[in-house]
Amino acid sequence: MNCERFQTVVNDLAREQMMDAGARNDALTHAQECEPCASRWEDERSLSAGLWSLSEDMKSLVAPPRLEAQILQAFRERKGGASRLTPVVTPIQVQTRRPLPRYWVAAIAALLLVVFGIFVVRGRVPSQNAIDGTPAVPSNAKQPAEDQRPDFAAKEKSVPSPIEDARPGVDGFQRIVNPPRTNRGRHTNAQDSAAALGVDVKKDEVATAFFPLTYGSPPNLQEGGQLMRVELPRDAVARFGLPVNMDRSNQRVKADVLVGSDGLAQAIRFVH
Amino acid sequence: MLSGDEDALATLYRRRHAGIYRFTLQMSGSPALSEDVTQEVFMILMRDGMSYDAARGSLSAFLFGVARNLMRQRQGREQFYVSMDDDSGEGTVADGFRAEHSPLDELSRGETIDSVRRAVLSLPQRYREVVVLCELQEMSYAEAASVLDCAIGTVRSRLHRARAMLIEKMRPAREAQSIAEGVKQARCFA
Predict the structure, then answer these.
(1) Between A156 and A202, residue with greater pLDDT
(2) How far apart are CA A77 and CA A83, in angstroms?
């Protein structure tokens, strides 16, 4: 036992707390041998005696009796008011009516906000289905395996030779067919427009979905229009995110272009 | 009590109110304040009794904790520190700290009690709390830690520091008392 150790145990020693008997004896022995620690020991004992005397002196002190009467009166008034308005709540019911912790409320509010945001965002994204009723092929969509990709060249089937227009083409376009003008029915998507025009893919032809060429509202042929069969360089297919067989890059592909009454191309699909 | 049983409240009050009252009196030295706080503690128990969780501690610790918080609120508005040098002899808020009828009539003991009382009231609040709970209310370290919502080690360290402060505050009083006792003895032999 040294002075530092004695300082740590002198409180418990003076307060007569439970402690190791060996440590207690060592501390008392040290207090007899060390004068500063003996003085500290005496001070602690005097303080403990004084605190004990104060505690004993105050044990007879209680609140005045009128305090109990006031509390019981308030309890009766509270019970009377509660019984008039609501039924008596049992302890079990009280336990289940604990207010929801604040963090749960915050978590629920955050979840509702996220769900609301998702609905708002999804509602703003223009749907590709509005164009042709079928999902379009985005440029970054996962492409099928190489051996599964449709090769227009491989699936080429016999189709009637197109009638070449004498007028020169622009940007590789060649006006092949000039079908009659459409009736002025209401059409909201390119596929319906093509059907209304009476020009649809033939039985031995395979076509992609219509790719919109204009931003904003989907193609609308309410004012009339026409569907033009054109031929394009094969690399034009790649511009729409479709796979291209580079071995046949010098060959042309067929496409149907939906042209509005203003003469502007509104949508295109590739035909094979 | 929560189910509306008045007898249960009366029993609970009679069993717990004295400790609450003495705690607030030892913390403040004011009987009036102690009555108010004691009453408020039981009003809160009636009103918000469902907030008590037995898993977190005993009912006694809950009641003492409420009393402690109420005392802290009031001490922000009123000052209840008693200077150790206040010997004006006039009535102070600490006068109600003493029992009306002391079991012992010895002057030295009465002076010792007064000296200790004033020393305790002069401590900073966080040290006064541990002295009142551990020394005067005779709570264990664990019980006091539950009331104060702190670690047991914190209670021990604060009590260690508080006792050292009390010894320093009471040293001049003890020295004066020993001198006075020496003078009395001299008179006895005169």
Answers:
(1) A202
(2) 10
